[in-house]
Amino acid sequence: MDTLHLLDTFNLLPFAELEVGHHLYWHLGNLKVHGQVFITSWFVIAVLILASLAATRSIQRIPTGMQNLMEYALEFIRDLARTQIGEKEYRAWVPFVGTLLLFIFLSNWSGALIPWRIIKLPEGELAAPTSDINTTVAFALLTSLAYFYAGFKKKGLGYFGNYVQPEPIMLPFKIIEDFTKPLSLSFRLFGNILADELVVAVLVLLVPLFVPLPVMVLGLFTSAIQALIFATLASAYIGEAMEDHGHEGEGHEEHS
Amino acid sequence: MKMFLLLAIEATVDASEAAETAGEGGFGLNFNILETNLINLAIVIGLLIYFGRGFLGKMLVERRTTIAAAIQDAEKRRKDAVSALAMQQQKLAQAQAEAERIKATAEKNAEVARDAVLSQAAQDIQRLRDAAAQDTTSDQERAIADLRRQVTALALQRVESQLASRLNDSVQQQLVDRSIALIGD
């Protein structure tokens, strides 16, 4: 009896508040774009640009403050790219990998840390740009383009030789892999971030105080890890595309 | 549980109210503390700053000191290298001066030696010439002496042969007498 009453109460609650799929649509010509993603993306971009400007405004020999922090980030990205792509080729890919890592990281953390809900939109709500599938698909397709470009640039048409390495029997799997790579990249990031935000939102709706805290902290952790995974996998794919034949079999599948 | 539900309902009601006040088609602000999750976010951000500051700060300070030490080390090495370079350059200059000096001495010595050799050679030539000249004169003299001896011998031979034919007792007597007369005078 009591449980029934409880269920009734739940039904009264407008769960639509958490509904996924409500977006602030902007019309650009024939396109309908998700405005809330743009707003938060602009915010993240602005933060990144400001951080870069602050870091490079007065460059000193012995780095302090912001310069030190950004140099540390750059070193981290460089090491990541170097370990995944290899000493010889990694340099050109540092900007790409770094952009992915920093943008995704800041997007995830902005979604987890900034009280976006203070700002009320006509429709939908502000959240991490990476919790929108369009953003992550864009990143994943860019990564696909990047590794195809890297492969063709390095080997020309010989890139197709990768598909029969190490055994010709691998050909169908390798072809499927070209489709699964962007799919897994985009869905992993999107799923993780959206799930994280939804869990926090549901918990906040049910128990507004203190109970969501562990999940939020965990969310911060997974958000950072997701950014790292995306950047690492992207550089691993690029490195794999440029890999010389002969020494195959370096582990590059580290899905989570 | 009831309490939570009540809170939740209140929150949603507030939210819907806020949505209404914000208007259907416009942007607005929502200051509902529970619904916007402000308290939790503040706690999380506080935790993040509290722990992150310590961790990141330590890391950055470490990085900074490492870089500073590396730069200092490099500068020290540069200074050392510069001073070493200066020292070596000084040594080079010294060596060059030494070489110059040695060269000058050598040239002087060579000049002296050349003069000595030349004068020696001239002396030798002179001596050889003198010796040659002496040789020729002595040869001449010996030849003349030989000739003299030969002539004398021939003359004596002739005298002896003539003496035997021409000498007899009367002539001898005459000779002896003449000699005695000479003595007598």
TL;DR?
The complex is a heterodimer of chains A (256) and B (185). With 256 residues, chain A is mainly alpha-helical. Chain A has helices spanning 2-12, 35-56, 65-85, 94-113, 133-155, 171-206, 212-242; strands at 25-28, 31-34, 119-120.
Question: What does the secondary structure layout of this molecule look like, with pairings?
Answer:
The complex is a heterodimer of chains A (256) and B (185).
Chain A: H1 2-12, E1 25-28, E2 31-34, H2 35-56, H3 65-85, H4 94-113, E3 119-120, H5 133-155, H6 171-206, H7 212-242
Antiparallel strand pairs in A: 1-2
Chain B: H1 2-22, E1 28-29, H2 38-166, H3 169-184
Could you explain how this protein is built, in words?
The complex is a heterodimer of chains A (256) and B (185). Chain A has 256 residues and is mainly alpha-helical. Chain A has one domain. In chain A, 64% of the residues lie in helices and 4% in strands. Chain A has helices spanning 2-12, 35-56, 65-85, 94-113, 133-155, 171-206, 212-242, and strands at 25-28, 31-34, 119-120. In chain A, strands 1-2 form a two-stranded antiparallel sheet. In chain A, a hairpin with a 2-residue loop joins strand 1 and strand 2 (31-34). The radius of gyration of chain A is 21 Å and the shape is globular. The two termini of chain A are 43 Å apart. The model of chain A is unreliable at 247-251 (pLDDT under 50). With 185 residues, chain B is mainly alpha-helical. Chain B has one domain. Chain B is built from three helices and one strand; from the N terminus they run H-E-H-H. The longest helix of chain B has 129 residues, at 38-166. The radius of gyration of chain B is 70 Å and the shape is rod-shaped. Mean pLDDT of chain B is 84; it is low at 15-24. The chains are: A mainly alpha (256), B mainly alpha (185). At the A-B interface, helix 1, helix 3, strand 3, helix 6 and helix 7 of A face helix 1, strand 1 and helix 2 of B.
